[in-house]
Amino acid sequence: MEKNSIKVGDAEIILGDCVEEMRKMDDNCVDLTVTSPPYDDLRTYEGSCEWNFDIFKEAAKELYRITKPGGVVVWVVGDSTIKGSESGTSFRQALFFKEIGFNLHDTMIWNKGSFAFPSKNCYHQVFEYMFVLSKGTPKTMNFIMDRENKYLCVRGASGRKKDGTRNEGKVGVFNKYGKRFNIWNYSIGGGNSASDKIAFEHPAIFPEGLARDHIITWTNEGDVVFDPFMGSATTGK
Asked: What is the dihedral of CA 108, 113, 119, 123, to 10 degrees?
């Protein structure tokens, strides 16, 4: 494969048009993609980024081709606001992924806990979507168990007898910590999203913790992780 690339530890960084570079990749070669595309036309990236829905469709098709059976794409995305209302591009993208064969395995939320710009005609926007797309059933699911359970055990009921009395259910015993909910909280801003100052020179970064936790969840050691848009290289880091 001819490319302009550098190796940084176990990561390889390739410079080029993401669709063209994906076309050079083998079928079924990526276990997990963690990425965030341009959000409509919210950033110009100094005029170096051409992005519209037709280009998105080409990128999506290539992602499906290079993803292994059982592999996952985590698509972190938001919408621009036009004349006071959201564009809905994120939903169009999620539905197109389904059209080409991906399962919409989970619609997760990244709660940023604060907002960059106050909204005048609706509630303040503090979240973005994390669409978890799978090529078939995900082959790896290492769920993070760090949510403290409210109860350690519960007694349930399993219906009623003919005389109207209840059948007593069994006691369920839980661990102190359970599986996370699908709303993940990561703060934004200086000192929160990234551990280095260089990343903050990029106009649209996502938190290192977000990338790390998805990599933990959907891959095992030795798997191939990919980010076609790269941004500030958080996934590669």
From this structure: 70
Kindly write down the DSSP assignment for every residue of 184-231, as one continuous string: EE---STTTS-SSSGGGGSSS---HHHHHHHHHHH--TT--EE-SS-T
- Say if residues 135 and 101 touch (Cβ distance below 8 Å): yes
User: Please, which residues bridge with residue 26 across strands?
Assistant: none
pTM of the model: 0.85
Nearest Cα residue to 86 out of 35, 51, 58, 127: 127
3-state secondary structure of 98: helix
Chain centroid offset of residue 182 CA: 11
Helix (H, G, I), strand (E, B) or coil at 109: strand
Chain segment 125-175, per-residue pLDDT in tens: 899 999 999 999 999 999 999 999 887 776 665 566 778 776 666 666 678
Count of other CB atoms within 10 angstroms of residue 237? 15
Residue with tokens 């176990």: 10
Q: Which residues contact 166 (CB under 8 A, 6 or more apart)?
A: 157, 159, 160
Could you give the CA distance from residue 105 to residue 210 in angstroms, rounded to a whole number?
A: 18
